[in-house]
Design brief:
Length: about 240
Amino acid sequence: MKFLNGLFLLIFAIIIGLLFWFPVFWFSDSFLNHMDKAGIILGYGLSCFSIALGAIAWFKRRDIRIWAFRKKFENVGEEFDLDKELVDAMVIPVSPHPDQPEWILRWLKPKHVSFLYTDQSQSVAQKLADEFSKPPYNINFYPNSKDIELGKHKIESPDKPEITKSISKLLLNRLLEKDLDRAKIIVDTTGGKVPMSIGAFQAAEELNISSIYVIGRGKNGWIEKPKNREDGVPKFMSDHTEF
């Protein structure tokens, strides 16, 4: 097959060469002279056009950069299938209300988890890490229960999304260093304060990692019964599982 492909390319190159060579003998010297002058004029015009285009690109470089590097969010709002999607690791913001992270731990069943927590949710994160690191769950937490109790990687300024983004990227990069499948790492954006969700989402996008949001079936979209699988519906914020 490789030989035939090479032969085909050789024949094609010869044909193209002949098409460019034989016109030299078909046309008169006068015609070729006119064509040569036309080529010079065309080349000059193309050079002027290229310079003008380069100048426009320079002055519009910010707009061009935004267009070229624009993000495309895949499958926004599509339901995250608990039966098909396999989760190796998660980064989860924790609120003082424990039901949402508990539901995620029970039903998404990640093997590695990093909590994003604050002063207000530190005790909740510590308790969940302690409970779910034991059988039958055996989840590997970083920071672990003792580290959380000591305040390791605690978010001191939850109203600043850049703080959460920085800590989220640190935790995500640590997971990636474990050679985990990037497509099976998920960032939750449900818990914590709004700036925390924004920071976590931004970190996920910069590292091409999927993010989800869990909608509860209780009042005001809360999860009220974390032991019931049907009490929560995870949806994609941005899907990088296949892209």
